[in-house]
Structure formats: structure tokens, C-alpha cells
Specification:
alpha+beta, about 45% strand, four-stranded mixed β-sheet, about 130 residues
């Protein structure tokens, strides 16, 4: 080889370069400031925006082109004001689920396509259960 490397050294260098660059190729949009978003959530009781829900779990999952939920994602907890935020979310489809003690679980899919999104989610109280026994 003209560079003075043996074929074995060249292969090791090539494999190392591919492994170092692979995460950027797979998730490149997440690191591109033009293609990532900052999301702000406000979780409140239904019909009363002034009553925030603290310690609600906000779960985010990317969706594939087929609409199926991917394995990677984020979990956030709301603060005492019912707020949670995350930065660096790649543009595309995102499933948002909110789980809070004493409320129905919330779920909705969103299209992330702008640099900053603010979402207010109203949580419903649990429905009355009916039994035939």
C-alpha cells in the first residue's frame, strides 16, 4: 500500500471509522439543529388548566414509516407545575403517552416538523366501571 499500512491495518482502520460514523448515519437528524425540535409539555386536569399534574410520566416513542412504534424513546416526569421538556427530538412522527395516577392514560401521535412545540395535554378522570355481577 502506498500509505505504508498493511492490508490488516487498513481493514481495522476502515471498521473503526464505520463504527464511529454509524450512529451519526442512523440518527443523523437528531443531531442536526435544522431537523430537531424542542418539545414542552404542560399536563393539567381536564377542564381546569390552572390545576397541573405533577409527577406525570410523559413517554415519547418515534414511529417508523409503517406507523409502528420503534423501541427507542424517552421518558420524562412533570415538575410541580405540570411541565416537562426535552430537546433534540428528530423531526417525524412521534407517539406521546401520558400516565398519571388517578387519570386515564393519554395517547396521541404527533408530527414533529418545527423547531419548537408546546403541547398542553388535559388528563381525564377515570371512567366509572360497570359490572354485571
Amino acid at each position: 500500500m502506498a500509505c505504508g499500512w498493511s492490508p490488516h491495518q487498513a481493514r481495522i482502520w476502515l471498521v473503526t471509522a464505520v463504527l464511529l460514523l454509524a450512529p451519526g448515519l442512523v440518527h443523523g437528524a437528531q443531531h442536526d439543529p435544522e431537523q430537531s425540535a424542542e418539545l414542552h409539555f404542560l399536563i393539567v386536569r381536564q377542564g381546569n388548566v390552572s390545576k397541573p399534574i405533577r409527577n406525570a410520566s410523559v413517554v415519547l416513542h418515534y414511529l417508523g414509516k409503517d406507523g409502528k412504534q420503534r423501541r427507542d424513546g424517552y421518558q420524562l416526569k412533570t415538575d410541580s407545575e405540570g411541565k416537562a421538556s426535552v430537546d433534540g427530538i428528530a423531526y417525524g412522527k412521534l407517539r406521546v403517552q401520558v400516565i398519571a395516577h388517578g387519570f386515564q392514560t393519554y395517547g396521541e401521535d404527533y408530527e414533529v416538523k418545527q423547531p419548537k412545540m408546546e403541547l398542553t395535554i388535559e388528563m381525564k378522570p377515570p371512567k366509572e366501571q360497570l359490572s354485571i355481577y
